[in-house]
Design brief:
Elements lengths: L50 H10 L11 E2 L44 H10 L5 H9 L3 H20 L6 E2 L1 H13 L4 H15 L7 H13 L12 H7 L13 H16 L3 H4 L9 E3 L3 E4 L12 H4 L3 E4 L8 H7 L3 H12 L23 H18 L12 H12 L4 H8 L4 H8 L9 H8 L1 H5 L2
Antiparallel strand pairs: 1-2, 3-4, 4-5
Keywords: DNA-binding
InterPro entries: Integrase-like_cat_sf (IPR013762), Integrase_recombinase_N (IPR010998)
GO molecular function: DNA binding
Length: about 475
């Protein structure tokens, strides 16, 4: 759904600096404990008033707006133009990615569209509560930039939806909200995506939308229509990949191309640490963030990195990488030693020494940015390439839809099957409990064990044949 060429619906031309009195209910959804109620404020609206805009606005005042009896007026004064960098138009985003999300249509030419400034809108919402500029800056920093961009995309999509259906964007209406969510269901959005949209719109309208009885009922019904199914079996085989890493083209590391050394090292760290790609991208090659010992290497993320959960435990957690068959005594142990991550890490650092332009552990190994810090996107691509190339090297068709994040589930699952304790699992993957592991990361890697029950039943045929 594209943005129209005119201003947002229902906004009348105002002289610069004119005031609009609006009300917002209090909420704690963005960290405030302001009591529920109305907050009066006045603000400025900067809108061009050319003839075409005036005509379009006159037409918009004739439109019939659908509203809820308990609707809440949003700060229309915050619908200003500018700041296109804060959102990507045309896509409904989710902070919980459970599958591909069909984009909402975007038919209007981007060059002719006004920009919806979500940052200004959120700032105005906080100003309405009486917060100072310094406090607003701190409040906005409480949410990670990726989450903020995801929320802003939802706000933009909801605004576009309101314009398309001639609904009033500046007021909260429960029927409008549910219709917007229903369109997402029709487009194939997952239950997690819908919950993310509700969270984003809760901040926009300063209401705890997820607690409304009709919203609860709607989500319960969606769970029946589109149940949150998760594939129980991993899409790729860790044993096959590790077997491939012990031979060409991933060996010998002292002579293979740097690209292959990078792929192998990144993959082994992802598997051995069970950490997220974002954490691996924040590792450093400098002391004290990387320390080698006789039997292990200890890594730490840089102080500027903020993990998904910002706490003293998560920020200061070390990644300890052990040696593996450090003194091989036979060919089998020699092959296993090729998976020694401490050794691989030393090889990698030696190979990138002459091109490294940053303190980041992982750097780009080719292209115009050669030697610069590798982004999360690059590291994710390297992990997927490693799995793909390993399958090709083994003469096996690579699986579809390999996800770099699957290394967390694969790593913790194999550790669990090999008798790793609950404490070890939770500490390595930085999980709060085994429930999180079972819900999000556990794969059924030993499904063949469950065949024993069926075989016991079928053994009845053995007795009947005698």
């Amino acid at each position: 759904m594209g943005l129209p060429r005119s201003r947002p619906d229902g906004v009348t031309p105002q002289p610069k600096g004119s005031s609009l009195l609006c009300t917002l209910p209090g909420s704690s959804s963005i960290g405030s404990r302001h009591p529920h109620g109305s907050v009066g404020f006045s603000t400025s609206l900067c809108v061009p008033t050319d003839s075409s805009d005036t005509q379009n606005n006159q037409e918009s005042t004739k439109r019939k707006h659908h509203s809820h009896p308990n609707s809440t007026k949003l700060a229309t004064a915050s619908l200003v133009l500018g700041s296109p960098q804060y959102f990507n138009r045309g896509t409904v985003d989710s902070s919980i990615n459970t599958g591909p999300t069909p984009p909402r249509s975007n038919s209007t030419s981007q060059s002719s569209k006004p920009q919806f400034d979500c940052v200004a809108l959120e700032t105005q919402i906080l100003k309405n509560k009486g917060f100072s500029d310094a406090m607003i800056s701190t409040m906005r920093a409480a949410r990670k930039s990726t989450s903020a961009r995801a929320y802003y995309r939802v706000w933009t999509s909801y605004k576009q939806w309101c314009l398309k259906h001639k609904m009033n964007f500046d007021k909260f209406s429960l029927p409008n909200l549910l219709e917007f969510l229903q369109e997402g269901v029709s487009l194939g959005l997952s239950l997690g995506s819908l919950r993310s949209q509700i969270s984003a719109l809760s901040i926009l309208f300063q209401r705890r939308l997820a607690f409304l009885s009709d919203v609860k009922t709607f989500l319960q019904r969606v769970a029946h229509v589109a149940p949150p199914f998760r594939k129980p079996v991993a899409t790729w085989d860790l044993t096959l990949v590790l077997k491939a890493l012990q031979r060409a083209p991933f060996e010998p590391m002292k002579s293979i191309p740097l690209q292959w050394v990078t792929w192998k090292t990144v993959f082994l760290i992802a598997i051995a640490s069970a950490r997220r790609v974002s954490e691996n991208s924040a590792l450093s090659c400098r002391t004290p963030f990387l320390t080698f010992h006789s039997d292990r290497a200890v890594l730490r993320t840089v102080p500027t990195f903020l993990p998904k959960v910002v706490s003293a435990f998560h920020i200061n957690q070390e990644i300890t990488i052990p040696t593996f068959c450090p003194l091989p005594a036979n060919p089998k142990e020699a092959a296993l030693h090729s998976l020694d991550l401490v050794c691989a890490l030393k090889f990698y650092l030696h190979r990138v020494r002459d091109i490294q332009k940053t303190d980041s552990l992982f750097v780009l190994n080719s292209g115009p940015q050669k030697g610069a810090s590798a982004t999360k996107t690059s590291i994710s691509r390297w992990i997927k390439q490693t799995v793909h190339r390993a399958y090709v090297a083994q003469g096996v068709t690579p699986p579809d839809k390999i996800k770099a994040h699957s290394t967390r589930g694969m790593s913790t699952t194999w550790a669990f099957c090999n008798q790793a304790s609950a404490e070890q699992l939770c500490k390595a993957a930085m999980l709060t409990s085994l429930h999180s592991f079972a819900k999000f990361y556990h794969f059924d890697t030993f499904a063949a064990h469950d065949t024993r029950f069926g075989r016991k039943v079928l053994q009845a045929a053995v007795g009947s044949s005698t």
